[in-house]
Design goal:
The chain is mostly helical. The protein contains seven helices and two strands. The protein has a two-stranded antiparallel sheet with strand order 1-2. The longest helix has about 45 residues. The N and C termini lie far apart (about 105 Å).
Length: about 190
């Protein structure tokens, strides 16, 4: 009888040991899992300004009420959400009485936005107004979508209004896939 009690206690102790070992493995596994996630999150936070939040498109979006410094990027629209760029392109195309694809196909042949506008009977002043109105519409949409605050949109739009028509034309040409500048004689 004493032998059976010793064997029963030994079996019970083995089960307890196994259960404790399994529980320990689970705890260690969970600690590793959450520790790695925490480290990954911290490393991502170290690359993103603490007052900003990265959206699905990879664009850093300012928190509501946060003051914006600087200006949006010029050129091919780097840094802007795709919906913003689409709005700008659509409004410019509409102003030129063309489709986005028609303008894009002319840009890849080496034309500038001023060439396209001229062929459509649009003056330089009219083109400048079309471009500014397109950016204004895009910023209004971005504010409604929560991409930018109204203050940010106002600041960015003021920057566009301060650009010379030539600078704005170059940005729009690049936005439609064209190349920078006009061909230089002898170059």
């Amino acid at each position: 009888m004493a032998q059976t009690q010793k064997t029963g206690k030994k079996t019970e102790w083995n089960r307890t040991s196994i259960m404790l070992a399994l529980a320990g493995c689970v705890v260690v596994g969970l600690l590793l899992f959450f520790g790695i996630r925490l480290l990954a999150q911290q490393s991502q936070n170290n690359t993103t300004p603490p007052t900003a939040q990265t959206g699905q498109s990879g664009v850093v979006r300012q928190q509501p009420g946060q003051q914006s410094r600087g200006t949006p990027p010029a050129g091919k629209g780097q840094g802007y959400p795709p919906a913003f760029l689409t709005t700008v392109r659509q409004h410019i195309a509409q102003g030129l009485h063309l489709t986005v694809d028609q303008i894009t196909s002319q840009m890849v042949t080496g034309k500038q936005i001023t060439d396209v506008a001229l062929a459509q009977g649009i003056s330089s002043d009219q083109l400048h107004t079309i471009e500014l109105n397109a950016y204004q519409a895009a910023f209004q949409q971005a504010v409604q979508n929560g991409t930018y605050t109204q203050d940010q949109a106002n600041t960015y739009l003021a920057n566009y209004r301060q650009r010379s028509p030539e600078q704005l034309n170059e940005s729009v040409t690049l936005l439609f896939g064209g190349t920078s500048g006009t061909p230089q004689a002898g170059g």
